[in-house]
Amino acid sequence: MPVKRKRKPVKKKKSKGGISLQVKMVLVALSLILLSPFYYGYILKFGASTWGWLKFWDDDPDYPSYESYGIKIPKKYSVHGIDVSYYQGKIDWQKVKEMNDDGVKVSFAFIKATEGVMLVDRYFQRNWREAPKAGIVCGAYHFFRPKKSGRWQAKFFLQTVDVEKGDLPPVVDVEELNGVSPSRMREELKEYIRYIEKKTGVKPIIYTGLSFYKDYLAGHFDGYPLWIAHYYKAKLSISEKTRWHFWQHSDKAKVNGISYIVDFNAFNGDSTEFKALLVD
């Protein structure tokens, strides 16, 4: 009988380990996407818009956030401005004038001129000259020191500032007692105001903080324009009977052309009423 030969078992070739062509193509495509600058641009844009939405999602429609200014601004006012001193350094007024965020722009500026009976703000002359060139309506202010003679402070202010047609009325900034009694402060302030009004024919604006006004000034200077400081609120918390003209509602605004934060203000009226307030 023929002898059956035993067949040797055929060893199956092991498939070589590795990645299939299809998987390789997918990986290459993903790599190209991930390395693309367009991908990261999209991600960054999406992330920024999402953060912006999350940041402002709870905004009060009457007190919205303005990202370029870095603050919230009461919606009902149409005339806005700033006030500056040496603290803001050298200002590019043209850039200030050109800034506009959804209709909010700087239309006026109060500029510090003097303090007490000896101090002239070192940037006053430059600011007083350059801001009007850029088309910004200006007014000068004096920082009042109740310990000093109100009359002498008024003389010092007018030696420094020429109040001209088209300017905002001059401002007296009174926000502290400096160790004197409220009655003494009011008496010196009256002397200051009388002298300014007599020499210029213009009623000066009184600037003060809300608490200082309520504690020491309310009912004593009702015939004069009032500028109140009261920060981070949707509404100025003051009696409706109080006739105020300006509201300094923030001290942390970012404005193009200014290297440091600055106070932001709203005028209590429209552009026609604003023009009516100017020196004629």
TrEMBL record:
SMART domains reported in the protein's UniProt record? Glyco_25 (SM00641)
Query: What stretches pass through the bilayer?
Result: 21-40
Q: Which InterPro entries match?
A: GH, Glyco_hydro_25, Glyco_hydro_fam25_subgr
Task: Select a single GO molecular function from the record's annotations and give it.
Answer: hydrolase activity
Q: According to the lineage, what is the superkingdom?
A: Bacteria
List the keywords (alphabetical): Glycosidase, Hydrolase, Membrane, Transmembrane, Transmembrane helix
- Family (UniProt): Belongs to the glycosyl hydrolase 25 family.
The protein here is known as Glycoside hydrolase family 25 protein
Which organism is this entry from? Answer: Paradesertivirga mongoliensis
The organism's lineage?
Answer: Bacteria, Pseudomonadati, Bacteroidota, Sphingobacteriia, Sphingobacteriales
